[in-house]
Amino acid sequence: MTAGKGALIVQSDMTVLLDEQIETAREAREQLLMFGEVVKTVGSLHTYRLTPLALWNAMSAGVSWQNALECLERHARYGLPFTAAATLRGWGQRFGKLRLQLREGELVLGGDTALLSQLAQQKQLADWIKDKTAEGEWVLHGHCRGLLKQELTRLGYPVLDYAGYHDGEALDIGLRKLTLRGRPFSLRPYQAAAVDRFLQEGAVQSGSGVAVLPCGTGKTVVGLAALAGVGAAALILASSHSAALQWRDELLDKTTLDISSIGIYSGKQREIAPVTIATYNLLTRRATAGDEYRHMELLTKRDWGLVIYDEVHLLPAPVFRMTASIQATRRLGLTATLVREDGCAEDVYSLIGPKLYDMAWKDAELGGYISSVSCKEITVPLHPSQRKLYHAAGGRGQLRIAAENHNKLGIVKRLLRQHEGKPALVIGQYLKQLNDIAQSLNAPILTGEVPPQERAELYSRFKRGDISVLVVSKVANLAIDLPDAAVAIQLSGSFGSRQEEAQRIGRLLRPKAGSNKAWFYSIVTEGTKETQFALKRQLFMMEQGYVYERMAEQGEAEPVSEAGRPTS
Amino acid sequence: MRLKEVAEKLTEEQLLNCEYFWLKGSVEGSLTAVDWDEALRLAASGKPLEELSAAELQVLQLHMDLHGASPVEEEALVVILRERSALTGAEIRLGLDALERGGFLFALGKAWGERFIFAPSDLYAALLPCLLPLSASSSPCCGDVYPAASLQAGQAGTGTGGTLPLGRALLYGLSRLSREPSAGFTAKGVLSRKMSDRLERAFPFSRDALQAFGFGVKEECGYSPSVALLLEAALGLRLLIAGDKGFCINEVALELWLKQDEQAREIELRSWLCDLIFPAAGAAAHCGARMCRIQDGSWRRVQDLYAEPRFVDDIAAGEGREAVMEQLQYAQNWLDLFCECGWLESGYIEGEKPEAVFRWRPFSHVIENEVMLQPDGEILAGPQISGSIRWQLEEIADRVSDDWFTLYRLSENRLHWKLGRGAQLEEIEAILQNISGRESLPEAVHNMLQQWHQSWVHKGSKRSSFCGIEKSGPQKSGESLQSSYSSQPCFLEIIRLPNQQRSQQFPGIPQQTVPMRLEQDRAGLYRLEINRDMHHAFSEKIAAVPAMWLKQRRSYHPSTSRELIAKAISLETAVELSLEGRSVLFIPEATEQRGNEWAVSGRLYGERKLENHVLGPEQWDEIRLVLPTEAANGRKRQ
Which of A501, B116, B348, B572 has the most crowded Cβ, counting Cβ within 10 A? Predict the structure, then answer.
């Protein structure tokens, strides 16, 4: 540890390097994470990026741009480059300059008049302006509320939306004090805080926004409480049919709604009720590429007072477009990560709403709401039999060879021995590799091909402890009914998906009896493309304060068959 | 040209006979003993100016105000200084003579007798604050500063990163040249388009920044402005030599250059650039010279760089405003140029009327080798690393981005390139270990390099016949290098004078281009002129004048008056007249015949300014010839 030097090196292109060897690095990191995003955390010098969205989200949550600037100035080793300081200040000063309001039934964009007249030159905005007031405010066409916010955010000007919401069809709903299953129920403090922000009249985040909570901390409960607070018919959009069923179960268990008030609108059932749970899949289904999204009319089919977007980081682009047209309806996004692999973060901000609550995973861990997960990356050399193939292969081929490195099996076996008796998941991307490993470990395998009944049977055996190791494919990423485990060993994944890594770790987060500890291992082939992807995958967890301990191993040689497959 | 360069071209006779202020006190007037930085500091203190007479000082002030460090043809200069001041021709000539003898100004002689008067660019910059002080002091300003071209509607307003400083770009460019097999000349004697494009990518530079000062790229070389500037700078700093087949790196000079800290390298380049531009910029140089005098990195107002013109007595108010606008444009041109070179940041302070401000970017003046080698093969190099480490990094890794920290990445291709040129893997590993200050390489990096090495071996491990461009090491003698430099090409030329419009009004501003360096005068038309000792010649002329004409104001017969007036015109001096009972100074310019009468036209000094008058001999009672040394006193009395 070095003392006396600043831990941050702020570059003029808005990247920030954090020197982890400096005494004040931890303090600097904690502050930086409030308004910056992690890009890379390799070695001792970690890379972060400052973006307008990250800053505006922080400002929505109460951090001022002056705080951000002060943090950078305090920790910067070489001072702040002029362009970086000015850019950050510029972003910060834009926040709050434009406000949408509803005045005598008209949608009015007001705020900084000089800015408004400057923006009026933008052709793409002109069509939405119906009239201008004497003060230079814009009277807008009612339909453009979402589109305007989206476009202005794209132009670099966030809009604070105070135009309010329509009430929607009234719904008699309350939260139970004792769940249907007979357990006492109340909101945890952070859940209550998130719901309060959503319901708080007049605040930037009220009525629309995104609650970011770690996996396993009860995001669904936040949704239920928000629904009870709004007291209106609601449309809940879930990521899969099984997730939709879990929403229904939770509604029945923890609210006063009965089954007749809840409808499931998915590929298998098409019910529309005061509270309707639909899947993204169905909403975006259409016969051919040129067809309309027929099921999208569900968004306007009933007078919804609230739309809940579960796993909002997965929201497909067509749903965003439709969301732009329902800006007068309250919207709540729920997610464990705001990271969008498709670059649609701006749309989440402008169309669903700003981040209204963010709970750091480490805070949840400290509060005992989730288990304490130790993350380790184990690097192993490529098995000698695969090296020639690797050098001869193309990009994707190389990644697959690295992922299917035969040396990984020995490590898996050692780790399972180390954690014997603890429920463990071995997770991977490639079915062939998973089948080979399942065979070698003599463990059952769960893939998308396994029928639901057989799957349920596997789950219950795993829960009971009849089987301690389950080999799973990517179906495990979002299978909410997957039983909790204490150990997860990741063999491979979808390129550099940060979401996937977070979801997989999420499998371990349910609080554990005793020491409340869990272990996540990622086995990576050193010196190959896989190392780069692995680093990218870890970013979100790093951002949440998790530190990946890195270990290099030589690999435990496994006999290899003539076909190149481990035989043991 | 800089003072030192000029001085080195002076003959022994000149050095012995003149009283150069910068040579005083040095042992036996020897140039080798002169501390040139000290000489410039002395000039900047204003002390040498105290030795000048009022007329000499005014000549220097006026010449610098109008022409900066630009060479001006002597006769044209006398004409314009006469027009723009109350000085007589003799005062101007003797003043110029004294300034040449004192080492403030020098003359370049052209083959057929023309003389061009000029001040060395660094001496000009040092003297400027004393000669033309500004009423408004340039003090640091405070307030939030915004980048000049940011925060407009429709822009995402993302930080764009800093502009690469010219010194670093030059280092990268030279490194690139040294690595490229295509760095040789084409049949046209220039770099190939491919090589030129590569250099350009290393240093994007706007054509406008140089064009604003009248500079363009020589058409025959076909380079872009950035490439021309990089090559010109490399040649100017003698880091590169143009041979017959291609460029050659001067290894001795390069080593010394790389040893300097970054601030020293950038300031040396800035001096070089000013030396290139000042002689061509005339009065436009003032803003640049004033900017260079600012030592710290605080924000300064652009408007503090210029002031109302000092010599506007005879300029109408409208023209004065135009002159201020011109100064503002000059200031903007310098801002643009220095920003393009990555040395300056410009912005504005918000207010009722936004104020344009600028500041010098800080560069490191210490060397601290902060290099971090990451396990994924990325190398982060701090801003204070030495030039030689930067050079090594350029050779062994790919540069990904450049900002405060420069990001390099080890790559298979670069390793293969380096191995192909004879390097051993162990050698490369040792370099990495050494520059990152580690006891051993991260295991992942070691493994990665091993794998790449194996794949190189696997591919057949061919060594390239190209081992970099020619390098002139210590084996090349100083003399031979000197002769190489005397025939170096230049890629930038003056295509248009920046103050051409004004030069049409004031013909003293050079109309033709004088070579920026004597070495570039291939035709040998120019030489440094010896001072002609005008004072002695003038004294001889005065000795032939009747003593009474000088001693006492008297009433003469009109024919004698005419003779006296004719003598005054030929000596370019003034006469003292008794006019309506008052004693006035009159500078006669020409006599004219009006029927049987004659008259003299000239300028009459009255009410503290000159007025054109035509006087007949009947209009004055008494007349006296005034020596130049007396003229100043006469003006004071009036």
Answer: A501
| Claim to verify: residue A135 and residue A228 sit in the same structural domain | no
**B442 and A43 in contact by Cβ < 8 A?**
yes
Q: What is the CATH number of the domain that holds A222?
A: 3.40.50.300
- Same-domain check for residues A154 and A78: no
Supply the Cα-derived Rg of chain A in whole angstroms.
25
pLDDT at A2 over 60: no
pLDDT at A413 over 90: yes
Q: Concatenate the DSSP letters of all residues of B559-597 into one string.
A: HHHHHHHHHHHHHT-EEEEEETTEEEEEEEEEEEEETTE
The answer to whether residues B451 and B375 belong to one domain is yes
Q: Which residues of A touch B375 (CB under 8 A)?
A: 42-43, 550
State residue B234's pLDDT score. 92
Do the Cβ atoms of B345 and A552 come within 8 Å?
Answer: no
- Work out how many domains chain B is built from and give that number: 4
Which alpha helices (H) appear in A95-163, and where do they start and end?
A: 113-119, 123-126, 145-155
Do both B21 and B104 map to the same domain? yes
Could you give phi then psi for residue A226, rounded to 5 degrees? -65, -40
Statement to judge: residues A372 and A355 lie in one domain: no
CB contact under 8 A, B376 and A535: yes
* Residues A20-31: tens digit of each pLDDT: 889 999 899 889
Considering only the beta carbons, identify the residue of B159, B376, B403 that sits closest to A87.
Answer: B159
B241-258 per-position pLDDT tens digit: 887 788 888 989 999 999
Which backbone phi and psi does A45 adopt, to 5 degrees?
Answer: -115, 105
What is the identity of the amino acid at B137?
S
Which of B152, B160, B347 lies closest to A13 in CB terms?
A: B160
Task: For residue B297, give the chain A residue with the closest CA.
Answer: A82
The mean pLDDT of A525-529, rounded to a whole number, is 82
**Which domain covers residue A470, as residue numbers?**
365-552
Tell me whether residues B403 and A12 touch, CB distance under 8 A: yes
Of A83, A122, A532, the CB nearest to B376: A532
Residues on chain A touching B458 (C-beta within 8 angstroms): 391
A526: chain B residues, CB-CB within 8 Å: 443-444, 447
Task: Tell me which amino acid residue B625 is.
Answer: L
| Total count of domains within chain A | 4
Residue A118 belongs to a domain:
yes
CB-nearest to B145 from A86, A94, A379 is: A86
Rounded CA-CA distance A509/A546 in Å is 13
The complex's ipTM works out to 0.77
Secondary structure tally for chain A: helices H, strands E:
23, 23
Tokens of B522: 């291939």
Mean pLDDT across chain A: 86
Q: How far apart are alpha carbons B381 and B288 in whole angstroms?
A: 32
CB-CB contact of A525 with A381 (8 Å): yes
Residue of B nearest to A76 (CA): B404
Tokens representing B4 are 């030192």
The residue segments making up the domain with residue B490 are 164-246+469-496
Distance (Å, rounded) from C-alpha A299 to C-alpha A309? 12
**Res B607 pLDDT > 70:** no
Identify the CA nearest to B63 among candidates B105, B110, B7, B126: B105
Statement: residue B153 has pLDDT above 60: no
Q: What is the pLDDT of residues B497-541, one digit of tens each?
A: 545 444 444 333 444 455 555 555 555 666 777 767 777 788 888
Longest CA–CA separation in chain B, Å: 109
Nearest-CA distance A333 → chain B (Å) = 25
Contact criterion met (CB below 8 Å) for B603 and B589: yes
Question: Does pLDDT of B481 surpass 60?
Answer: no
Complete DSSP assignment for B102-132: TTS-EEEEETTS-EEEE--HHHHHHHHHHHS
More confident residue, B29 or A179: A179
Q: Of A40, A63, A94, which residue is a domain's last?
A: A94
